[in-house]
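Closing statement on the magnesium ion sub-project.
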Amino acid sequence: MRNTLQIRKKLLEQLGGLPEPRVQNEEWLYLLGEETRNSISIEGYFVSEKELEDVLLKGRTETRDEKVAFNYFRTALFLYGLAYENYKTGEFTFNEALIRQTNKGVTDGHGDYRKGDIVITGAKIKPPPGFYVKDWIKLYIDWTLENLENLDIEKLVAKQHVLFESIHPFEDGNGRTGRILTNYLLISKGFTPVIIKGDDKSRKEYIKALEEAEEPLREILQSKPGKKRLNITMEEMNSKRLETLIKEALIRSMDRVLISKLEKELELKVIPSYEVAKKLGYSPDSIRELIRRGYFIAVKRGKSWYTHHSLDVRSVNSLENIRYKINP
Ligand SMILES: Nc1ncnc2c1ncn2[C@@H]1O[C@H](COP(=O)(O)OP(=O)(O)O)[C@@H](O)[C@H]1O
Ligand SMILES: [Mg+2]
């Protein structure tokens, strides 16, 4: 089976690549809005779709949660603009300044690292003492830069996220900062951002994935920061659960952008998945399962999934294939 993600990446490049992150772009506005609402809800802040829309329109906030949402949205938008320029230029800006500015943006604070110890509620891991945070963050940056080209994208972003959250460099905003940095990495490489779901069940699954992966870091984060040991530990790390979660989310966001582009460029018309199933002789259940596994490029609109018989990635690997299947 070919890699369902790499096929999507190739198709996106054939369609002119990732669109520029702007609120004027419908898909970007949707992704940024949903990311904001989900990411802050992981931390216990809630805004409805309508509320967020109002806040963005007026540029003014009333409640604490609205302010948190506004700060998240504008920080993410700025960082993703920068990431897009990385993608366009082939550069990769990734340093302490960028990380601290992200935290400053989401917390509306000073962006300084914590000076004292910190406890992650409910976690087995103990983040390093305050006086080692800067050194660990430098090692986190080095590790990410050194592995950017040689690991599969979902493995790279999963592992760096586990390391960042385990260092927990800031007093507050570590979750929000780390998730924006994760998407910054993805966009810099020409992928769409992921939305890590914030409902109770998904949140638990996400924390469980972090817990499982961070296991080998527990000991070394309590000792003097050292590059060699970190590299070995990062290799030992089992981040499979988080990788799967990220890959599934990535497929969903890639598909949203892909379908929007295909609708414009090939005049493709997606239809409800049960109609595609009927046409292809599948049961409605089995097509849903195929979508879930990433075998069909598909998008959820309202309560239903939409796709097209030409969007089966098991038999399609270029834009030409899709064009031909639409119009034989
Ligand atoms: N067991 C764990 N190991 C590592 N990181 C964790 C664990 N549990 C939670 N986290 C991370 O900590 C984040 C919460 O940290 P916090 O500084 O309060 O961020 P925020 O202010 O954005 O909520 C979670 O979103 C998650 O990413
Ligand atoms: Mg917090």
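Residues 43, 172 surround magnesium ion (ligand 2) (CB under 6 Å). With this model delivered, the sub-project is considered complete and its resources will be redirected to Aim 3.
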